[in-house]
Write a structure and sequence with these properties.
Layout lengths: L7 E4 L4 E5 L10 H7 L4 E5 L14 H14 L5 E6 L1 H12 L4 E7 L8 H12 L9 H11 L2 H6 L1 H12 L3 H9 L18 E6 L7 H11 L3 E6 L6 H4 L1 H14 L3
Parallel strand pairs: 2-3, 2-4, 4-5, 5-6, 6-7
Antiparallel strand pairs: 1-3
Helix pairs in contact: 1-11, 2-3, 5-7
């Protein structure tokens, strides 16, 4: 799908690394990675449908995977390393299964392969369906979601990042975030399917991730992917790449070097 008002940041030249953001975020969340990894690489971070005029028509992860493929086509990119954070990682799995020939590697950042249990799905749907309304998300919902997304260390030691998170989420159109979440909340379990993803995989995951706890989510992913390694990011939660950018950048740079990208 061509999205005329989609915003894209592109820097550098060389092998392509494409960044797909999480729910209630945008391409700017990858600023530390674009700064650190641009040497001899072509880095592209783009806004998903939720940050465009296409935000208010329901869609799913397959639609987002097609959007990513269309972005590669638009930019003349044959293959890329795809970096997906949370929702972007869920989409990255669908992309890897659907377009394996376009994938040189996959970074699963604060993501997982599991489906939501039915009882948990109902609760999370209710949390996001509070945003089925006109107007902005507002500070109440953004403040409620903050401790789920930022680690305890960040909340204690980095008030500027806490305020950035709350203010940024509060200003988003509420219904765009609700529909963004509904794109992935019913995702299937992909542990068995991950055996078909032969491209190298890097799992980047915060040790303090309250939404997707490291010890519950990472070992099953390491067992499921044929060619995967993990980087445990200490003192970081779900937004690990912003909470501890130097550690994330070092892990990604090392892995990109090992896969020759």
């Amino acid at each position: 799908m061509l999205i005329p008002d989609r915003k894209i940041t592109e820097i550098g030249q060389g092998p392509a690394v494409v960044f797909a953001h999480g729910t209630a975020a945008d391409r700017t969340m990858f600023a530390p990675q674009l700064e650190a990894l641009q040497s001899n690489r072509r880095l592209i971070a783009y806004d998903s449908r939720g940050r465009t005029a296409a935000a208010f028509t329901p869609y799913d992860l397959h639609d987002l995977a097609r959007d990513c493929r269309d972005l590669l086509d638009e930019r003349g990119i044959e293959r890329c390393v795809l970096v997906g954070m949370s929702m972007g990682g869920f989409m990255g799995v669908e992309f890897a299964l659907t377009y394996p020939e376009r994938l040189a590697g996959l970074v699963m950042m604060s993501a997982d392969l599991a489906a939501y249990p039915p009882d948990r799905l109902i609760a999370v749907l209710a949390d996001f369906d509070r945003l089925d309304r006109d107007g902005p998300v507002g500070r109440d919902w953004a403040t409620w979601s903050m401790p789920l997304c930022l680690g305890a260390t960040t909340i204690r030691e980095n008030p500027a990042l806490v305020e950035w998170f709350i203010a940024g989420r509060a200003a988003l159109p509420a219904r765009s975030v609700q529909l963004e979440a509904r794109a992935w909340l019913a995702k299937p379990d992909r542990h068995a399917d991950a055996a078909r993803i032969t491209a190298p995989v890097l799992i980047v995951h915060g040790a303090e991730d309250a939404l997707l706890p490291y010890d519950q989510k990472v070992p099953p992913m390491l067992a499921a992917f044929p060619n995967a390694e993990a980087a445990r990011i200490e003192r970081a939660g779900h937004f690990a790449n912003l909470e501890q950018p130097e550690a994330v950048n070092a892990a990604m740079a090392g892995w990109l070097g090992r896969i020759g990208w």
